[in-house]
Design goal:
With about 750 residues, this protein is an alpha/beta fold. It has 28 helices and 21 strands. Helix 9 runs antiparallel to helix 21, helix 17 crosses helix 19 and helix 27 runs antiparallel to helix 28. Its cofactor is [4Fe-4S] cluster.
């Protein structure tokens, strides 16, 4: 276990004096209507949260955590869930808030929620009653904030949630294929809270309640705002002058620089003084990152220059450690986006208090029992930790929750399991998951307080596990054992993804997992088998996977259970060649995997992989105009091909795969031999292909022959005749002149083939 962390907050989350409205007590549900407010005796709300999700009073939903957290501070909090965004009326249903509107698109980015990785529209929404799609607008954060401003122009609007968090600076937008401005600029909001919002939201609410103007509150960690320049008293450095972003800053000695150690016999040893000199205590030097900001390339520069975009992305990812992160400044037009350093992570005691708030753990009664798929998936699960130090390039958890693991205490988790057992309708004795972003990072933190405070590595486990990282899974094993021994608990399942490169460091965990906590199948995410894409994903090689599988199979057999690993893979990730996908498909076939659900890479804002996708450069290393170029699978055909190779067993994909294999010179992989990937086309398939070709109608344009324009079917037939004339027609055309025309007219076989002047 790690020592006491040097990263400490200035004050505890629950140390504030409660607001006067705490006298109203705790609401059964945060109100969604004026009738509920009247029942509670409220004349107004202090804070109104507008969300793109249906309101579920459960700690897995952001609006519930923030709402209950603010309620515990004494504020009256209302919820406007999935409002009608076509006008401002629905945003006025609870009246004017006394302090501010909190706006979030929901637990998911509204664009990812609405569109697939191939930009096709989805027609469902797991966060909406009865899974109905279309209940939130595209770019919901922008739309909601603008409607709030229309409703009450003088009320501050505070953005939050993952959609706003990942758009806090200029960012590449996959859906419009362009670089967009910070969401702060387009939304006209007063402030943006990125990451987990408990600490900044509580401080903001109390300062506004104390009478501070929103324009004067500019120094809260984990927030971003618009300014005309940097904060007074801060010194800046241009990002392009940083030698190597990611350098670990040295820890300054509290009494000044130490003298070098030398032996007394050394010629460089200082002479002994007959009289001792007076000891002068040096003042504590400020840490090099305090009151310092990094000036990023402007929005205009990163939009015009992909190299500068990749550089800005690299700098941002190296300023995520709350122990040493500097503020960021990025110019947009004649103003600047100022991003304060990340908030200090919650302590275990604070995490326990947040999860002990009076959640009802069910959807709001206004939904009248309608099914919410997102709730059904998590209603019997328990979140035991936050954060992830894996740093996978395609994942945005680090940019949102940070690398430092924030764990709940064992007692807190056990109390929640007992609460589920005793109060949640439909509980059958099975806990569906004990996990979080990763199943097996519970209580695992850096063992070196100095390194934890100053490290700027993007990942603690890639390219290899850091020597300072704790890999002892004993706390997790102890938690599992205590949880499954509870009365009324039949089974504890682990549904969160297991970080297998960590698990193999402690085989006891794999044994515990395989023996007691797998329901036949265990999800695991190697993502790929080839070094090229794995190096861009920052994922371990297949050696760790093979070792994990070996141990998992061994312990499953010892337990007398037949259990299987279900691997997850990504296609079309930056750095993936078509040949890499062929090798992955061959690996899948060799290991007898037939994947049902596969995923093309989805470029989400701020992820390192998205930067690679847009710029063609690798921000994991120093970026310049001569740095490494990254292969980017783009275009519908290539993305469809790479996805099809993951489902090599599907006959619908065979024609596309055969064509690609022939083009790559891998025709030997087509056939019925064991080493072949797909079978050769059958006679019936070949005939069907020819029929489809014959039935294809040619496209008509203004340059098309007049005969075909008037009668496309006839023109098509004539065109076929023209392409395959008989010998008589050939001889007739060879004679030329009038004789050719007369012969063609008599034979009738070249009818319609004569070229005429196009009709415009």
């Amino acid at each position: 276990m790690s020592s006491i962390s040097l990263i400490q907050p200035e004050r505890d989350l629950f140390s504030y004096t409660p607001y006067w409205a705490e006298c109203f007590g705790t609401a059964p549900f945060l109100p969604m209507s004026r009738e509920e407010m009247d029942t509670l005796g409220w004349d107004s709300c202090d804070i109104i949260i507008v969300t793109g999700d249906a309101y579920v009073d459960h700690p897995s939903f952001g609006m519930a955590i923030v709402g209950r957290m603010l309620e515990a501070q004494g504020f009256r909090v209302g919820i406007i869930a999935q409002p009608d965004w076509t006008n401002k009326d629905d945003f006025m249903r609870l009246g004017k808030p006394n302090l501010f509107f909190g706006v979030t698109a929901g637990n998911m980015d509204s664009m990812i929620n609405r569109y697939t990785a191939d930009r096709r529209m989805r027609h469902d929404d797991a966060y909406t009653p009865d899974n109905v799609g279309g209940k939130r607008p595209d770019r919901a954060t922008l739309v909601y904030s603008q409607r709030c401003k229309e409703a009450y122009k003088d009320v501050p609007v505070i953005l939050g949630g993952i959609e706003a968090s990942l758009r806090r600076i200029a960012h590449y937008d996959y859906w419009s294929d362009t670089v967009r401005r910070s969401v702060l600029v387009d939304s006209k909001a007063d402030m943006l809270v990125y990451g987990n919002g408990e600490r900044p939201m509580v401080e903001l609410a109390h300062r506004l309640a104390a009478g501070e103007a929103i324009a004067d509150i500019q120094d809260i960690r984990n927030t971003a705002l618009m300014r005309k320049g940097p904060l007074p008293g801060w010194s800046g450095v241009d990002s392009t002058r940083l030698d190597k972003p990611g350098r670990i800053d040295p820890i300054p000695h509290p009494y000044g620089d130490d003298l070098p150690c030398v032996d007394e016999g050394s010629p460089f040893a200082p002479e002994k003084q007959p009289v001792a000199k007076e000891v002068v205590v040096q003042p504590v030097r400020p840490k090099p990152w305090e009151k310092t900001y990094v000036l990023l390339p402007s929005y205009e520069k990163v939009k015009a220059d992909k190299i500068m975009y990749a550089h800005a992305s690299r700098i941002l990812h190296h300023e995520t450690n709350p122990g040493c992160a500097r503020a960021l400044l990025q110019k947009h037009g004649d103003r600047y986006v100022w991003i304060n350093p990340p908030a200090i992570p919650l302590s275990t005691e604070e995490m326990d208090s947040v999860f002990a708030l009076p959640y009802q753990r069910v959807p709001h009664p206004a939904y009248n029992g309608q099914k919410l798929p997102a709730y059904e998936m998590i209603r019997f699960s328990v979140n035991i930790m936050r954060g992830c130090y894996g740093g996978c390039s395609f994942c945005s958890i680090t940019e949102h929750e940070g690398r430092i693991i924030q764990s709940r205490s064992e007692d807190s988790i056990i109390r929640e399991i007992e609460e589920i057992r005793d109060s949640v309708p439909g509980f059958t004795g099975i806990i569906s998951d004990l996990g979080g972003p990763t199943a097996n990072m519970y209580m695992l933190r850096c063992q070196s307080p100095k390194a934890e405070q100053t490290c700027r590595r993007a990942s603690c486990v890639y390219p290899e596990i850091c020597q300072h990282m704790d890999t002892n899974h004993e706390p997790t094993i102890k938690l599992y054992r205590r949880a499954r021994d509870l009365k009324g608990i039949k089974k504890i399942l682990i549904a969160s993804g297991v970080r297998y490169d960590l698990a193999v460091q402690d085989p006891r965990y794999i044994k515990e997992l395989a023996t007691h906590h797998v329901g036949g199948y265990l999800k695991i995410a190697p993502e790929h088998t080839e070094k090229g894409p794995l190096s861009k994903m920052m994922k371990p090689g297949m050696g760790s996977y093979d070792r994990f599988k070996e141990l998992f199979d061994t312990y499953s057999k010892q337990a007398g259970k037949e259990q299987y690993l279900i691997p997850y893979f990504i296609s079309a990730h930056p750095g993936t060649e078509d040949e890499d996908m062929v090798n992955l498909a061959l690996w899948l076939k060799k290991n007898r995997f037939r994947l049902d659900q596969v995923q093309n890479f989805y470029p989400s804002p701020l992820a390192n992989s998205t930067t690679m996708y847009y710029t063609g450069k690798n921000p994991l290393s120093k970026v310049d105009y001569k740095s490494e170029d990254v292969t980017i699978p783009k275009g519908d055909r290539q993305r469809r091909l790479q996805k099809a190779l993951l489902r090599y067993h599907d006959p619908a994909n065979w024609p596309l795969i055969r064509t690609a294999l022939e083009e790559m010179g891998l025709k030997h992989l087509i056939g019925s031999r064991r080493e072949c990937l797909v079978p050769a086309a059958t006679i019936e398939e070949q005939r069907a292909a020819k029929r489809n070709l014959r039935q294809t109608r040619p496209a008509l344009t203004k340059h098309t022959d007049i005969t075909r324009q008037r009668d496309p079917a006839k023109g098509h037939q004539a065109a076929e005749t023209f392409r395959k004339p008989d010998n008589k027609a050939k001889n007739a055309r060879a004679q030329g002149g009038k004789q050719e025309a007369e012969h063609s007219a008599k034979s009738g076989k070249a009818k319609g083939s004569a070229r005429k002047k196009p009709s415009f």
